[in-house]
Amino acid sequence: MELTAEEQRVLGCLLEKAATTPENYPLTLNALVNACNQTSNRDPVVTYREDTVNAALTSLREQKLIRIVYPAHARATKFRHVLDEAWALSGPELAVIAVLLLRGAQTEAELVTRTERYGDLSDFGGVPGVLDRLARRPEPLVQLVERRAGQREDRYVHLLGPSEVSDHPDPPAGRSSSTAERILALEVETATLRNELTRLREWLEDLLGGPESPPKSAND
After folding, report:
1. How far apart are CA 67 and CA 2, in angstroms?
2. How confident is the model at residue 29 (pLDDT cuts 50, 70, 90)?
3. Which of its termini does the chain have fewer beta carbons within 10 Å around, N or C?
């Protein structure tokens, strides 16, 4: 498999939106152009034109990785990926592939944070288990790349085509010397706060006798 950078971005966007905004999926061509050119959750940031995205869609369709959807009550043609059918991939595996397609080489910790919004991966052993499954396929889809000078951790890349591996050293421990690192730190903090809020909500529900139980009266 040798997907071009444009095909990788388009396929990654379809994977992402299917999992994170299913109410707006499949995507129209215009929505897909906007998704490709997002400035958040993308590395590198691109400015694709409609003809560039359309050419990538045509190629992906020829490779049987996407399908066209013709809505019954809408004029706009839409597109969806069929990677789950074509390569027998689970939701957690699609989540990891999507992040690698959209953000390039990632450490295991980055993948843990950035796949959280795709859903629960715990049934597959979390990110480490998913990476192991993808790497052990007859035709592996991910590969571990050893850390380079100045970097503290190894990184994973997808094997669907050329994938950029940064040569930039990691920032010193305790510091965020780049915008990307500051964003990652915020993502980790947000995930932690979300988990704490979930645990607090569950504790309150148990204390009150369940989410649908009426409030106790003063005589109870």
Report:
1. 19
2. very high
3. C
